[in-house]
Specification:
The protein is α+β, with helices and mostly antiparallel strands and 147 residues long. It folds into two domains: 89 residues, Arc Repressor Mutant, subunit A (Orthogonal Bundle); 58 residues, 2-Layer Sandwich (Dna Ligase, domain 1). It has six helices and five strands, in the order H-H-H-H-E-E-E-E-H-E-H. The strands form two sheets. A three-stranded mixed sheet has the order 4-3-5, with no helix packed on it. It has a two-stranded antiparallel ribbon with strand order 1-2. Helix 3 packs across helix 4. The longest helix has 14 residues. The chain binds zinc ion (3 copies). One zinc ion binds next to strand 3.
Length: 147
């Protein structure tokens, strides 16, 4: 079983790139977070870990991590791009509250076989997807009701 570092260095090697120290520090920070993050939050984690990585390097490295398939672009909220690592995690959908912006998840374990069958029927090679459902979370629903 490969770990995320092996996968990333192999991916970089194919592009003629190396797993430099800043890239490794970013990768480790990404895999220390088991939730959604944006570039600035990732940068904060790197600073706490005393990594000498600039925000510009974070922005340049995120597309590489995306292309390697280790992370996914999960959603866009208030013009921020939100990511999460998917290596080692089950696929899931996001419930996004349009009022407070909270995000919760439901596993796609039951839906994946259906999607794979549907893709086959379309002769479609599925590479990536994300499923985001907008609405009101239970807190906001209760709040609105009590007003
Ligand atoms: Zn994780
Ligand atoms: Zn998620
Ligand atoms: Zn809410």
């Amino acid at each position: 079983m490969q770990d995320h570092e092996q996968i990333f260095s192999r991916f970089l090697a194919k592009k003629g790139l190396r797993l430099t120290l800043p890239r490794k520090q970013i990768l480790d920070a990404v895999f220390s977070l088991h939730s959604h993050f944006d570039a600035e939050q990732l940068f904060d984690v790197l600073r706490i870990r005393n990594a000498e990585v600039s925000l510009a390097t974070v922005y340049r490295t995120l597309p590489l991590l995306l292309e390697s398939g280790l992370i996914q672009h999960s959603m866009r909220q208030e013009s921020r791009d939100i990511y999460e690592h998917i290596f080692g995690h089950p696929r899931h959908l996001h419930w996004i509250c349009r009022q407070c912006g909270s995000v919760s998840e439901t596993s796609l374990d039951n839906i994946m076989p259906f999607l794979e069958r549907a893709a086959q029927e379309q002769h479609f090679e599925l590479e990536d997807f994300s499923l985001n459902l907008m609405g009101l979370c239970w807190r906001c629903k209760n709040e609105n009701r009590n007003q």
